[in-house]
From TrEMBL:
CDD domains cross-referenced by the UniProt entry: TM_PBP2
GO cellular component: a single term: plasma membrane
Compartments it resides in: Cell membrane
Leader peptide range in chain numbering: none
Cross-referenced Pfam families: BPD_transp_1
Keyword presence, Transferase: no
Gene Ontology terms: biological process: alkanesulfonate transmembrane transport; cellular response to sulfur starvation
Residue ranges crossing the lipid bilayer per the database entry: 31-52, 90-111, 123-141, 147-170, 191-221, 241-261
Alphabetically ordered keywords of this record: Cell membrane, Membrane, Transmembrane, Transmembrane helix, Transport
Taxonomic lineage: Bacteria, Pseudomonadati, Pseudomonadota, Alphaproteobacteria, Hyphomicrobiales
Species annotation: Bradyrhizobium nitroreducens
Name of the protein in its database record: ABC transporter permease
Membrane topology: Multi-pass membrane protein
Length: 281
């Protein structure tokens, strides 16, 4: 019994030592991601503080964050963020549903692809602002036209991602499913869905990014609140700090929502044995 105790102690110490760097690396990764923007912000703050620039057109970070704090104290910031988040959420939901359904139909059914895809590809080339006067004419200047414009931006990458992922599924895997006489539903659930899911998650992230881009154009349609309105108001009143504050908030919200998609998709992609950083590294 006495001789076993040191051996147990020796085996437990390396495990503890290995776990400590793993935890440290996990906490260090998010900090590493903000290193570049933090360095640029501090560098520009230093440039203005030294008097090398007056910071009038490009205000230093201290002035931008002071503007954000002022908007937060007045309650305007919460109102604008809530309005923009609501529009992006609705537009994203509608765009994802339409893009997923039409992309799956076009990818799985060749006749539908020949009928739908040329039209979709032609519509995809239309600039976002070109839709604005048409949606105002059809849907008015209220929320419906704004949500519809965001949904258009989300639709195209989701549609292309789903259709393209289905088309590049390995034929040998499908033949294995047919060999085991899987039904159509079982083929989709056990073969196509796992094969398509990684590309689908990427298309959702791209669609969300375009949704955030399209919301600016959407909020130029007679909006009285929202981050896009805050941008336009800053431009009209000559407030560059307010413009940069809205851009910074756009960047933070975009990154947070993208991270939420990654977090939600992670449990469904644990089976992947793909190139990338090892788990826990």
């Amino acid at each position: 019994m006495v001789s076993d105790a040191p051996a147990l102690q020796q085996t437990s110490e390396p495990a503890d030592n290995a776990a400590a760097p793993s935890r440290a690396a996990r906490y260090a990764r998010p900090l590493l991601g903000i290193l570049l923007p933090l360095t640029l912000a501090l560098g520009w703050e230093l440039v203005v503080w030294l008097g090398w620039s007056n910071g009038r057109l490009v205000p230093p970070p201290s002035r931008v964050f002071a503007t954000i704090a002022e908007l937060a104290r007045s309650g305007e910031l919460v109102r604008h963020i809530a309005a923009t988040l609501w529009r992006v959420s609705l537009g994203f939901a509608f765009g994802v549903v339409a893009g997923t359904l039409l992309g799956a139909i076009s990818g799985y059914w060749s006749l539908a692809r020949r009928l739908l895809d040329p039209t979709v590809q032609a519509l995809r080339a239309i600039p976002s602002l070109a839709w604005v006067p048409l949606f105002i004419l059809w849907l008015g200047i209220f929320e419906t036209s704004k949500v519809a414009l965001i949904a258009v931006g989300v639709f195209f990458p989701v549609y292309l991602g789903v259709m393209g992922a289905i088309l590049i599924v390995d034929r040998k895997i499908v033949e294995v499913g047919r060999t085991f006489r899987l039904s159509g539903f079982a083929m989709i659930r056990r073969i196509l869905l796992p094969a398509v899911l990684p590309a689908y998650v990427v298309s959702l992230r791209v669609g969300l990014g375009l949704g955030w881009m399209f919301v600016v154009a959407a909020e130029l349609i007679g909006a009285s609140e929202g981050l896009g309105y805050l941008l336009l108001d800053g431009q009209q009143l000559g407030k560059p700090a307010q413009i940069l504050a809205a851009i910074v908030i756009f960047a933070i919200l975009g990154k947070l929502t993208d991270w939420l998609i990654e977090l939600a998709a992670a449990p469904f992609l644990r089976w992947q044995d793909a190139f990338g950083p090892a788990k826990g590294a």
